Amino acid sequence: MIAVVLLVLSIYFGSDRMKYFDPALIIYTSATVFATFGVVYRYAVWLQKPPTALYWRRGWQLFLQPGSLLKHIAELCRLFVQNFILQIFIERRSYLRWAAHFLLSWGCLLAAAVTFPLVFGWVHFDPAPNNPSMYVPVVMGIPMGRFPAYSLIGWTTFHLLDFSAIGIIIGMVLSFRRRMYDTDAQALQSFTMDFLPLILLFAVSITGLMLTVSSTFMHGDSYGFLALIHAFSVIVTLLYLPFGKFFHIFQRPANMGVHFYKAAGAVSDRALCARCGADYASSMHVEDLKQVLAELGMDYTFDDGTHYQDVCPTCRRKMMAVNQLQAIGGPGFL
Asked: Exposure winner among 22, 54, 136, 152, fewest CB in 10 A?
């Protein structure tokens, strides 16, 4: 509710007390307010889960260490460029998958960066007082220069949503191709988590492009009907945002905290297996895992005070095999 109130206040004051808010766009705003509530609520619930809460808390503790804060800020900038802007973590899997993900993500981000400020009334365009053919973009009441309406800058500015729609459609085609021919993807995919998001993005993009086609080449023919279909597809997508695969857009940045966790574990004290003495993890990771398991109600502490997590994975498999053999043939089976 706090997030919703802050959003409504930002719309009210950002549009100069609703002076530049278009009432025709109230349905988009209502869907956005609902999506904001859903996203923040689900994010808060996600952060309350013991494993996520521990990673979240420990990640901030490690990042804000006084002696390493500047180094961590530089590392965070590097991770932002690699994982968010360039998305190299997808490229390692396949170039086709990276191209699809890159076009879809940046197409959506560009569309959001253009659409939401316009819908909320944060951005509007005024004609220059001394030259009506010049446009002055105004951002929250602050003029941000001017440009000719019929210049390359003007044409590009007013077609940014078309560019994002084309990128999304190309990315969607590449993604559909992978899901139809990649056997690994076919084994794990589902309609609601894999196909429905692509269908929604396609509906938003194609109807948005048809609005441009109608206004540019068809003299506005069927514009009202297309606008209605476009509004419906956008609203359904916004309402789906907190519940489907789109939610990983908000989860993904938190994963950068895992990088700092692993980096700290690599230079911290090591955990040695209680059975064979092998180095199998960091002591911090093992102790945190014990804490999380206890919070989940799974206590693997033995009678002598040792813990099952003090045994390396290799020895756990050996112990399981030994126990199974004893269960089948008795103590003397071996």
From this structure: 152
Cα separation, 168 vs 268, whole angstroms: 44
pLDDT per residue over 208-239, tens digit each?
999 999 998 888 888 889 999 999 999 999 99
Q: Compute the distance between CA of residue 90 and CA of residue 150 in angstroms, rounded to an integer.
A: 39
Q: Treating both helix axes as pointing N-terminal to C-terminal, what angle do 196-217 and 95-120 enclose, rounded to 10 degrees?
A: 60
Mean per-residue pLDDT over the chain, rounded? 88
Q: At how many degrees (to 10) do helices 196-217 and 223-240 cross?
A: 160
User: In the structure encoding, which two tokens stand for residue 115, read together?
Assistant: 């659409």
What are all long-range contacts of 120-127, with beta carbons under 8 Å and residues at least 24 apart? 120/10, 120/11, 120/14, 120/15, 120/21, 120/29, 121/11, 121/14, 121/15, 121/16, 121/18, 121/19, 121/20, 121/21, 121/22, 122/11, 122/14, 122/15, 124/20
Cα–Cα nearest to 85, from 257, 234, 256: 256
Its sign, for the CA torsion 204, 209, 213, 216, is positive
Q: How many CB atoms lie within 10 A of CB 113?
A: 11
Q: Which three-class secondary structure state does DSSP give residue 143?
A: strand
Helix H or strand E segment including 234 = helix 223-240
- Given a cut of 50, is residue 40 above it in pLDDT? yes
What is the structure's pLDDT at 333? Answer: 45
Distances 88 to 54, 84, 109, 159 between C-alpha atoms, Å: 27, 8, 17, 28
- Which of 114-139 are b and which e, b meaning 16 or more Cβ less than 10 Å from the residue's Cβ? bbebbbbbbbbeeeeeeeeebbbebe
Q: What does the alpha-carbon distance between residue 308 and residue 323 come to, in Å, rounded to a whole number?
A: 15
Closest alpha carbon to 149 in 138, 134, 159, 128: 134
Place of tokens 């990128």: 167
Are 167 and 156 in contact by the 8 Å Cβ rule? The answer is: no
Tell me the whole-structure pTM to 2 decimals: 0.81
pLDDT in tens, 169-207: 999 999 888 888 877 777 777 777 778 888 999 999 999
State yes or no: pLDDT of 109 exceeds 60: yes
